[in-house]
Design a protein that fits this description.
Blueprint: E1 19-27, E2 33-39
Antiparallel strand pairs: 1-2
């Protein structure tokens, strides 16, 4: 029986809006607005982060 996976945490930097389109203010020759795409640098455009690894102290 498959085990359900817990949901991955949402990126705190982009709040699950990892890719945005920004208008440059210029228009293309056919009259459309020229845009560029930007990805979230923290999650690299996925919208999710991996959980932090647990810090385990060993020894004394």
């Amino acid at each position: 029986m498959p085990q359900p996976m817990p949901p991955r945490p949402i990126c705190g930097h982009c709040d699950n809006f990892p890719t945005v389109t920004i208008t440059t203010g210029q228009t293309t020759p056919d009259g459309q607005r020229q845009t560029i795409t930007a990805n979230c640098p923290a999650c690299h455009g996925t919208g999710h982060t991996t959980p932090a690894r647990a810090f385990v102290r060993t020894g004394r």
